[in-house]
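Entry:
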Amino acid sequence: MGEKKQKEKTVAQWKKFVVVGACVLFVVLMIVSGMGSGWISAFSVIKPGDVAVIDYTLYDAAGNSVLTTSSTGKAMLLSKQISLTANQSLAHSIYPIPVSSTKASIATQFALFRPEYDAISAAVIGMKVNEQKRVTLSQKGTMNQLWSPELLKRNGVNLSEIAVGDVLTMGVSDNPEEMATNSSSLSYLRVGEVSSKSPEGVVVDFGYPTADIRIVSINGR
């Protein structure tokens, strides 16, 4: 008789556990449904063709931040977050980014070149929301340009006034021939640093070897 009561007691306890477990599961499901589908993205990774919204910072060859989406950053230029399609090459030579100066009240468009865009687009594959990564955009020195004294003078700059480490800006276009013949043609901003100086002119590095990126959100194809 005692053994029968013990079995009945054990069965009753299991029923109680099952009921409690079902209630907890119900509460969890209610919470998840209230969160919508956004919680799923916390566990999903970026696949080719997905659209990723990113925060980013571009660094010059000296390691200085040139362009950033961080309002607390020390970069010269400030940008909003950008959206790009994962693992998809840019159709045009330039990806224009609206930017503003952190030091002056100007607004313009910055030129992100196709190889730089493509490097970021490829790098986001497999990343999750809030994940961060440093991306290599170009090899150091591959975007050096020699500016002769004559070229500097045409742009209102004297060679004697320039020193290594100075920053120069350049207007670039996806149609260089039109830009050369038409002063009103659309151009985009590019910022470079003087890496060397000689009587022949100055060498300006307009490349950005690295970028830090952070995934803000992932949208399906």
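The chain has a mean pLDDT of 82.
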